[in-house]
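Quick note —
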Amino acid sequence: MEPVSANNAGQGDSSATAPKPSLGRMLREARERLGLSVADVADQIKFAPRQIEALEADDFRRLPEMPFVRGFVRSYARILHLDAQTLVAALPQAETVSTRLEPASVEVPFPVAHSVQRQNMILLGAALLLAVLVVAFAVWHFTTPQAPAAKTRVEMPLSLPEETMSIPAQAVPEVAEAAPAASAVMPALEAAPPPVFPAVAQAKPKKLPGAPSQTAALRLAFDGESWVEIRDKDDNILSSQINLQGSELRLDGDAPFSLVIGQGASVRLYYKGKQVDLTPHISSLSGVARLTLE
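Predicted structure written out below.
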């Protein structure tokens, strides 16, 4: 009986020293027990599948800053019916995560503050290009189309001095005969202008083919910390960053706009000067608002 007891004691020691499962493993095992796929979870909490896979693999280099990760874990815990506080406590220390996030900042869908300067340079370049297009259109419009019309109007009155100069050269008795001749010339002169006006009318409706598109204005006011991603009609990212409480974000671009707003209840959105109600677009599980503005 003694060997059996020793064996049992050894088993007890091995179970006591078994390593505690990681946060990602606990989430993955709970999801599999419920029969949910990564795509099912992504559809419910409105996060990308690659972010869910990174969290389950404990690969924090592919995830944003720690405030975002904590909210991510809480949303995931609600779906799996787990204790959110226990899972959040299992996260690595903030110093460790921030150190590992540094080299992988390019992959983060919501960049940190140091990328704002680069975005501002891109917007400045776009504004300069737009200004050049406007100046080119103005130069083309005010020079090329109106030159033929000006030349036609100058030629019209040249025939009048030729007819009037011949009248005083006639003798006095022939004045009566010259008057009917002058009256015959005047209808001809009055009939000459009509062909000129169609030429002038045709020059006015010409338009520049490459006229710049109209832009629309967006303004977001933040009553609490929130991350935001905004894309224009060409799927170009206009802004992707975490915004602090009390700050504002103003953008111009080509509609329609696609917006993803974290903590949507603490954000006020204005489009073309009018406030947009975010309530119908906020997920009850994650608090994330997703919408498109035409």
